[in-house]
Amino acid sequence: MDSEPVGDLSPLFFTELVETVGVGVAVYGDDGSYVYVNEAYADFFGVDSTELVGTPLWDIVPRIDADQFDRYWASFEVGETRSTETVHEYNGTTVPVDTITTRRIFDGTAYHFGTIKDISERKEREREISRQNERLDDFARVVSHDLRNPLNIAQGYLDILTEDVDRDELALAINSLDRMDTLITELLTLAKSGDGIGDTEQVSVSEVAEAAWNTVSTGAADIVYPDRSVAVIADRSRLQQLFENLFRNAIEHGGERTTVTVETRSDGFSVADDGVGIPVEERETVFDTGYTTVEDGTGFGLNIVEEVATAHGWSVEITESAGGGARFDISGVEFAD
């Protein structure tokens, strides 16, 4: 149904509207001084709105050069709107903000109208991402030096040993070292460029899970695989890495007699174990870089699981398994025809 016209709206109505919109609102005169600010804007600095009236804009925005202000202010066309990200400072308070400013003429007088939004939370998230990237850089240095060097030495000794000894176990050891070398290369790529996956292809969930299980120290743990005919579209190596980290997590926390079950579902697949599980209050933080409950853990395992899933366009949810352990549901997966 069409709404009825509301008729003329009083100035008081608009005043009340501006005061309750939940964002900072300011009106500036043609000389750049505040003519009006609403309480939401004044609250940024913990002052009364009337205190700011008459204050020049450059006293609030450090990036504005008072000597160059007139030229900048006059460069606005009537009706022109500009948005920018800047910092406001007043009364000992610094607030990063997004501003949208428009020039209008009323009764022959020019005014600039602005809305100001506090972006402190967004800036904090950006800083946290920056800190995580720094940790990833540190991790990359550890991987490239502290892991690569002993790996190369082990590969060299195995090459010498295989010249004199013909044992299937040596072939398995070489395969494991080759897999470690591949993972190191991929992790360095992930840490440095953020490129989570390469080319995708049709891969069997069961076959990739089995390959992952064979590279993990499983002890007496057992695994149940899904139907080998079920295939998904994925980067095979990255999917194997996802499984490896989930398997390792299950065994590290559930013990070497844990049973791990890989199942396919209508919208993806899951990895479950019958170990101790993950408390509900910790499930939102387990994917954070640095999270670990194992004394010598790196904290990157489950973070990498989420990175790989996200790079594929998948999502990961943690629930409780039928055996009381942890269950990781990966959804949004594209199945092969």
UniProtKB/TrEMBL annotation:
Catalytic activity: ATP + protein L-histidine = ADP + protein N-phospho-L-histidine
Keywords on record: Kinase, Transferase, Two-component regulatory system
GO MF assignments: protein histidine kinase activity
Keyword Transferase in record: yes
Keyword Kinase listed: yes
Leading EC class: transferase
Pfam families referenced in this protein's UniProt entry, alphabetically: HATPase_c, HisKA, PAS_4
UniProt domain Histidine kinase: residue ranges: 142-331
Residues covered by the PAS domain: 10-54
UniProt-listed Enzyme Commission number(s): 2.7.13.3
NCBIfam families from the UniProt entry: sensory_box
PANTHER family named in the record: HISTIDINE KINASE 1, TWO-COMPONENT HISTIDINE KINASE
Protein name: histidine kinase
